[in-house]
Amino acid sequence: MTPELRTERLEFLPYRPEHEDVFVELLRDEEVCRWMGQDLVPEPQIREVFRAILADIYPQGRFDVWGLWLAGRYIGHAEVKPTGNVEGHELVTALAPGYWGQGLGGEAVRGLLRHAAENLGLTEAYGMVGAENTASLAMCRRLGFRHLRDVVGDDGSVTKLLVIPTAQGGSEGASRTAVEATEQTPASGAGTPDGPPPAGARGAEGLTGAPGATGTVGAVRGGDLAGVAGGEGLAGAATGEGLAGAASAGEAG
User: Fold this and answer.
1) Measured CA distances, 99 to 2, 90, 180 (Å)
2) In Å, what is the CA distance from 238 to each residue of 6, 64, 165?
3) CA distance 125 to 87
């Protein structure tokens, strides 16, 4: 059962039926989709994804997925899920644009790392970040994520696969924002609090789902939601086929 989590400013709350509209609003935002590497898909398909969370993911304990709340306001989405690219689990976060640049992405990732270590018994976690997302890449250099390899999409886009020990999420000062680092070693400032992105940095605070994996956020990319019911994850859940499979898969499961 997905637990409620809390950090200094954020509440991680399992979704409830009344959260459907805010979930849809987040995943219909063009800037969110752009930096999460997703296509903007029709609203009915996003609603199918949300309903699959309630009808399939939670009841079957497939993986953990939350809405992120700040002072009672919904501001984003988070997941810890099995990843299709390596043996292990990946972190996924997405924030609404109005909350970028405030260190909330890093705070969300710290919360996920603590959950992964303390509740799931994981020693490391993975993340994906678009190579052009310089704002998140700069934050991740301060986190200490280690670059494993680049994943090149069919369209030539490059996403960086990163890994970090979950122990780095143990304190407010230890790990910062989501999962994207450059190929260089962590900067000497790793572990310092998140600040605003460097001048000229482009992108959003967030960790994308692994290409080819299934998950909630990714499920909105146009991939086959059947994967959601299959247990891979929401973030990747939509990387390539069609979301229509989600509802039917949920019923079949």
Assistant:
1) 24, 22, 18
2) 28, 17, 27
3) 10
Please report, as a single letter, which amino acid is at residue 46: I
Tell me the pTM: 0.76
For the record, the structure tokens of 73 come out as 């306001």
Structure tokens at 29: 């935002």
CB 48 within 8 A of CB 243: yes
Instruction: Kindly report, residue by residue over 124-150, the tens digit of the pLDDT.
Output: 999 888 888 877 877 777 777 888 899
Task: Using the structure block, give the residue that is written with the tokens 């997925």.
Answer: 65
Residue 160, token pair as written in the block: 């960086």
- Tokens representing residue 223 in the block: 């991939």
CA distance 224 to 134: 29
Does residue 93 contact residue 205 with C-beta atoms inside 8 Å?
A: yes
Question: With pLDDT > 90 as the criterion, what percentage of the chain qualifies?
Answer: 40
